[in-house]
Amino acid sequence: MRHWILIFALLGSAAQAGTVYRWVDENGTVHYSDSPRSGAEAVELRQPNVYEAPKNLPKIESRSGQQEEADPAGYQRLAITSPEPDSAFWDNQGNFTLRLSLEPALDTAAGHSIRISLDGEVQGTTQKLQWQFTGVDRGTHSVRAEVVDESGRALIQSDPVSFHLHQQSINLPARRANP
């Protein structure tokens, strides 16, 4: 395997250098070099493939929920600020608060609201930038938020955020108070 890596490395560097020479020594080992030597033959290399990206690419949404240009509803960014991605926390009742950031502010006059989902299931809608969850079971969960219009069509959505909720096991005996 190392032999082939060496060959490809030499061929790659030789492609920039110009001519590559190949020869076989008395033990039958094949050698490559960019320097000519007696008994070596020139190896003809193919031109490398070159790709040029198109100049006018369409605007696409980034992973953070930001868009290059505002959508028709005018929203530029919707993000979950709490819980943080891959965070872990304890709550024996399974309670936690989802906090959001939205730019610009929610257009309630147009009938827009924020739809909240936990593990792919819609939990409800709100016009506030936070949502209180209660009674969530222990484990790894994923939350997502999206701004929707009156008909329920998503105008912008956040990236999903996964987090880990820990709870004390019901199988553990109650802790005794220290005297």
Keywords:
179 residues, mainly beta, 6-stranded mixed beta sheet
Explain how this protein is built.
The chain has 179 residues and is mainly β. Strands 5, 7, 8, 10, 11 and 12 form a 6-stranded mixed sheet that branches. A 3-stranded antiparallel sheet has the order 2-1-3. A hairpin with a 5-residue loop joins strand 10 and strand 11. It is elongated, with a radius of gyration of 30 Å.
Strand and helix map with partners:
Elements: H1 2-17, E1 20-24, E2 30-33, E3 41-43, E4 77-82, E5 87-90, E6 96-103, E7 113-118, E8 121-126, E9 130-133, E10 139-148, E11 154-157, E12 161-166
Parallel strand pairs: 5-12
Antiparallel strand pairs: 1-2, 1-3, 4-6, 6-9, 7-8, 7-10, 10-11, 10-12
Give a brief outline of the structure.
By secondary structure, this protein is mostly beta strands.
How many β-strand runs?
12
Gross morphology is: elongated
Terminus-to-terminus distance: 68 Å
**Number of helices, where a helix is a run of at least 4 consecutive DSSP H or I residues:** 1
Could you list the spans in which at least 5 consecutive residues all have pLDDT below 50?
66-70
What is the H/E string?
HEEEEEEEEEEEE
State which percent range the strand residues make up: 35-45%
Largest sheet: 6 strands, mixed
Mean pLDDT: 81
Fraction of residues in helix: under 10%
Please compute the radius of gyration using only Cα atoms.
30 Å
- Helix/sheet category: mainly beta
